[in-house]
Specification:
Elements: E1 3-6, H1 8-12, H2 21-32, E2 36-40, H3 45-54, E3 63-66, E4 71-74, E5 79-83, H4 88-100, E6 104-108, E7 113-115, H5 120-126, E8 133-135, E9 150-153, H6 160-171, E10 176-180, E11 185-190, H7 195-205, E12 213-216, H8 223-228, E13 231-234, H9 240-245, E14 248-249, H10 260-267
Parallel strand pairs: 1-2, 1-12, 2-3, 7-8, 12-13, 13-14
Antiparallel strand pairs: 3-4, 4-5, 6-7, 6-9, 9-11, 10-11
Length: 268
């Protein structure tokens, strides 16, 4: 049995947030050969599960890896196989550092986005991640559980969130990891998690040799996954970090079925 880890946005999904018919046909062939897939995204679990249902990926009995590898869910049962969370102390430190810099930051529970306010950043984010939100006026006070991840958003595309990330990692003494997933988003999650850690954990759970694992992703938050898998593939539209980490970089991008031929060949 082989195991393929797919990032969603910019990778398995095209620019219209869909899977092309040719790539879906390749996934059917992969499944029929007895292999498994895992959807590995920076999105929170509720959003990953929603995408799996909407795109009819549920027929492949997938695993849902969410919030940058801080959660692994068995789709069929909804059971958590893996969960890592940020301590509330580190959440408060990070929120304070973001506030000092005037940078928006939100967190999550199992079903909602937890936000300090309804503003442009939240509207921008929920145009794709269509989850309900709860406003916590004294954010992060009012959280009922420690979140798996937080997200900082800077729509100006300046370097403010990079500086926030460095400052937060230092203040939390290495317990958190901060990495960009696109020009606007900084993913904040426990340093003992990450997409790469999820690759190792799920492969071990399924008794799959790491040499029989594959991964594809297009952004900096996919680097650990591309490195951990037996073979990491980056589409042509990837950022410089994903391309440098991948074992192979496709000549095609996510709008031109860069994975279809490879999946069919490896399914044998």
């Amino acid at each position: 049995m082989k195991l393929f880890f797919f990032d969603l946005d910019g990778s398995l999904l095209n620019s219209e947030k869909k899977i092309t018919p040719e790539t879906y046909k390749a996934l059917e062939q992969w499944h029929e050969a007895g292999h498994r897939i895992a959807i590995s995204s920076g999105r929170p679990a509720a959003s990953v599960l929603m995408v799996i249902r909407e795109l009819k990926l549920d027929v492949f009995s997938p695993y849902a890896i969410a919030s940058n590898g801080t959660q692994i869910k068995e789709y069929a049962t909804g059971k958590d196989l893996w969960r890592k969370s940020l301590s509330m102390e580190d959440v408060k430190r990070t929120v304070a550092i973001a506030a000092e810099r005037g940078i928006y930051c939100h967190a999550y529970d199992d079903d909602h986005i937890l936000t300090p306010r309804e503003g442009e950043e939240l509207k921008f984010y929920t145009r794709v991640v269509k989850l309900p939100f709860r406003i916590l006026p004294d954010f992060p006070e009012g959280m009922a559980m420690e979140p798996c991840k937080m997200l900082a958003i800077d729509l100006t595309e300046k370097k403010g969130i990079d500086e926030l990330g460095r400052a937060a990692e230092a203040a939390c003494e290495g317990r958190i990891c901060c990495v960009r997933s696109n020009p606007w988003y900084l993913e904040i999650f426990p340093s003992d998690a990450g997409k790469g850690a999820a690759v190792t954990a799920l492969a071990a759970h399924l008794n799959v040799d790491i040499r029989d694992t594959y991964a594809t992703g297009d952004a900096a938050n996919d680097v650990s996954m591309l490195k951990a898998a037996g073979l990491g593939i980056a589409p042509a539209n990837s950022d410089e970090y994903a391309k440098a980490a991948a074992d192979a970089v496709s000549e095609k991008d996510n709008d031109h079925d860069y994975l279809a031929g490879f999946i069919k060949k490896e399914a044998v």
